[in-house]
Amino acid sequence: MEKILLVGVNARFSHPNAALFYLRNAVAGMGYDVVLKEFTIHARPEEIARYVLDERPAAAAFSVYIWNTRIAKRLMEILAPVKDFPVVLGGPEVSYNASEWIEGYPGTDFIITGHGEEGFRRLVEAGFSSTARIIHSHNPHFSEIPFPYTDEDLVGFAHRNVYYESSRGCPFRCAYCLSSRADQKLEFRDVERVGEEIGRIASHRPKLVKIVDRTFNADAARARAIWKRLMERYAEHGTTFHFEVHPSLLGEEDLVLLESAPAGLFQFELGIQSTHRATLEAAGRRGNWEKERAAIAALLSRTKVSVHVDLIAALPFEDLAGIEESFNRVYALGARHFQLGTLKLLPGTEMRERAGEYGMRFSEDPPYEVEENYWLSRDDMPLVKKIARLLDGLYNSGAFRITLSELLSRFATPWELYAAFAAMFADTSDISWLRMHGLIEDLVSSTFPTDIALMRDCLSWDWFSSFDTHRIPAFIKNDAMRAARRTLDELVRTRAGKYSVGVIGDPARARVFAPETVEFRVKYMQGKGIAVFVGGNGVPVLL
Asked: Most exposed of 24, 29, 193, 384 (fewest Cβ within 10 Å)?
């Protein structure tokens, strides 16, 4: 039986390429052995090409996205002079500039634009002998597209995310997003089918199921019905379900329902993008900051949903001061995760077509990030990018909670704190805990030298709260810590009833913290002198 090879090059091992599984189903029973092969972007193009050639397929199809475009182009160059089979490309990176790929990369035989199931099926049906090299084909309604995964697939996802679509398309027309195009009309699967398909996924107990609908709560009643079903069936299942949710569409009925969702069940990503009306209107983004702020604040205060929020820098009409204002407003919400991205002008989007109108200069190579516009200069962008990286290393890591709280009290705004860090942040590739610790020590030593002992206490506490390991940094191994260990050992020896294994666990495994400053004891330890960390949850026993 002849073989069709479907190849994905993913950003990470944990991110499978759902498109390949849909395509496999689209051509099931058509007389081919369909083989899926996934690499990551760390694989060399030469390695991928060698694999493809060694498989001797009847045809090979590649899924092209913003993160693997360079690799795909190099693959076409390598394969062009040596392959004896047709190569098919599909995906968002080739759908709206297909002729450029056909003309520029001779290894490309066919390109399927848009959602590819029907176009790929027809191409296979024709034996890869179509006279048209760029194939535009209308898919059936999304409700008619089969569930992409087999049980065998899902077993293989044990240590990976599982991507699932309950709908395709989007009702909104954000000018920077491909889902805003007219050919991306909103189509739903019905609630009962969604429940059954998620049930198949959940039966394998994955850690994370990412429902990748562009706006999951576009139909609020439908969203609530699905959330309710998941809450009833998977409250203690150990799986987290991720949703992209529009904050403007969150209402009181949603919040009342979500108040009952247990911690760890739901993770919401809410795109704010900007807090300024003129910017949102220019971007075609429906949103009202005050309404969104209230909805997100209620979500955070009334529910246990893990909340992720996003801003996009370099949108029209927002200068550096405007970004700073949006940053401070969103930071104040206290979401679990806060991403500050830079606008990307994706091929096929309205914003890319209007780049000249806004003075936008952008990289011609993926990810097509804006480098300047009429409101942001090239000199502004390094600060924005540094603060975005610092957010990941300091805020999103969750490993500097007490330290950041103390530092923020010494600056007028969060932006001013992060800008101060950015001024000394040269190596943006390294955002490890120890690197961030070094930045904090440097900042405090130069700006608040009298607070250095308190800040070291904060950093030590954050380390013990964040990492369940005895391999602690050298700066924590001070005389106070060693004395605290001796004190704990003596307490355990002489007062076993109160300081028994049942209270602190195995004394030999306990991690002991003792602050150098009275101020830390009073503020964070109820005046106690020793904290014993006995597990991985970061909650100590105070002695």
From this structure: 29
Read off the tokens for 471: 């391999």
95 contact partners, CB below 8 Å, separation of at least 6: 111, 113, 114, 348
Name which of 69, 137, 139 is nearest 108 in CA terms: 69
* Residue 135 near residue 112 (C-beta atoms within 8 A): yes
Nearest by Cα to 249 from 271, 225, 227, 280: 271
Q: How many other C-beta atoms can be found within 10 angstroms of the C-beta atom of residue 152?
A: 7
| 162: helix, strand or coil | strand
Among 22, 19, 14, 20, residue whose Cα is nearest residue 37: 20
Helices 414-422, 401-408: axis angle to 10 degrees equals: 110
Q: What kind and span of H or E run contains 311?
A: strand 306-313
DSSP character for 140? Answer: P
**Calculated CA dihedral for residues 149, 150, 156, 160, nearest 10 degrees:** 20
* 528 within 8 A of 514, measured Cβ to Cβ: no
Give dist(CA 191, CA 212) in Å, integer. Answer: 16
Q: DSSP per residue over 427-444, as a string?
A: -TT---HHHHHHHHHHHH
Cα–Cα distance, 93 to 114 (Å, whole number): 10
Q: Please, what is the Cα angle at 193 between 187 and 198, to 5 degrees?
A: 105
β-pairing verdict for 187-188 and 208-211: unpaired
- Report residue 245 as tokens: 């949710």
Digitized pLDDT (tens) for each residue of the chain, 543 residues in all? 899 999 999 999 999 999 999 999 999 999 999 999 999 999 999 999 999 999 999 999 999 999 999 999 999 999 999 999 999 999 999 999 999 999 999 999 999 999 999 999 999 999 999 889 999 989 999 999 999 999 999 999 988 999 999 999 999 999 999 988 878 889 999 999 999 999 999 999 999 999 999 999 999 999 999 999 999 999 999 999 999 999 999 999 999 999 999 999 999 999 999 999 999 999 999 889 999 999 999 999 999 999 999 999 999 999 999 999 999 999 999 999 999 999 999 999 999 999 999 999 999 999 999 999 999 999 999 999 999 999 999 999 999 999 999 999 999 999 999 999 999 999 999 999 999 999 999 999 999 999 999 999 999 999 999 998 878 888 888 888 888 888 877 777 776 545 554 556 666 677 889 999 999 999 999 999 889 887 666 678 888
Q: Residue 115: enclosing H or E segment and its boundaries?
A: none
Q: What is the DSSP letter of 357?
A: G
- How far apart are alpha carbons 25 and 31 in whole angstroms? 13
The HSE-up count of residue 277 (CA atoms within 13 Å, CB side) is 3
d(CA 74, CA 47): 11
Question: Does residue 461 sit in helix, strand or coil?
Answer: helix
Q: Which helix (H) or strand (E) holds 308?
A: strand 306-313
**Model pTM score:** 0.93
- H/E stretch holding 88: strand 87-90
Per the CB < 8 A criterion, the answer to whether 115 and 168 are in contact is yes
